[in-house]
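2024-03-11 09:14:02 DEBUG pipeline.ingest accepted 1 chain
2024-03-11 09:14:02 DEBUG pipeline.ingest length=331
2024-03-11 09:14:03 DEBUG pipeline.predict start
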Amino acid sequence: MLFKEDEVARAEAKAVRENAAWYRWTHDLVEVTGPDAERFLDWMLVNTIAGTAVGRGKYTTMLDEDGGIIDDLVVFHKDAGTWWLSTLYGPHMVRWFDAHKGDYDVAYCDITQSWDMYAVQGPNSAQVMNDLVANPVDELKRFQLLETQAAGVPVVVDRGGFTGELGYEVYCAREDSPAIAAAIDEAAGKHGAPRLKTLEVYVRSLPMEKGMALRQDYKGLTPFEANLGWSVHMDKEFFGKEALAAAQEAGAKRAFVGVEIERESYEDIAQNEIVRKRGIPVGICRQMIYGYTVDKNIGFAIVDAKKCPLGTRVTIGPNDSPATLVEAKWC
């Protein structure tokens, strides 16, 4: 869905791209423990989880029996024998694990209700964080954890985010959330970094400008079709590998691409609207939004890989809005 340009949303997007901003952004958290936790996760996920150092994390996907993506997530080795899985679909993950646990000596539970999370994002986010937490964040690597304090209470910080900028995520106990929000607001205020209020800006517009999609956009694609082949380690065993290998050998049938709407007007184009090439259906739109810092109507689509190379002119939706297929990254 496209939404109308307004100055508040544009200012919020600009703050993230040029300075810093913060917002409450609570992923679901699934905690995995037990003697076989590492081996179990290495089997269930396509990236190599075994050997991940304590305090480090990895982006990965989880596949179904057909080699299609059913979740994308970040896996953190929080403590020795304890793993945190940051996902948007905790209950679904727990049910999937239940169905495929087998003989692994492993325990897992959705701990989302016990934790809250805030995101501090933008090129100056490290300055905000250094005024917030007890230990400097300057040396943190991507997907690295730091256990420290803010406002006198324990927090877990990781360097990451969903904006394509330098950023950090601050996890705190749910009961400490008001104190942490106030502390972030104070630290951010020293740097002119606002709290974002427009959900569509930080969940959809900013990420899409950097080619960052949600699981709902990828769902059913293989990692290779979704441009996530770099996260797949075919040199190890994992659930769905046989089907994924067969799909890879057969060649990609679908492609995950970016879409630029050529009209300047803001039009409603819903998820799963038909993409047509010369009037013939060749795919579906996954989502569409206005990119405030690229000044374009942009979106994601899944199209026929053979019929729709990048640069293909298409139309989308009931009004046949003209569009061009591009790489799924605008800035």
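2024-03-11 09:14:41 DEBUG pipeline.report The chain is about 25% helix and 35% strand.
2024-03-11 09:14:41 DEBUG pipeline.predict end
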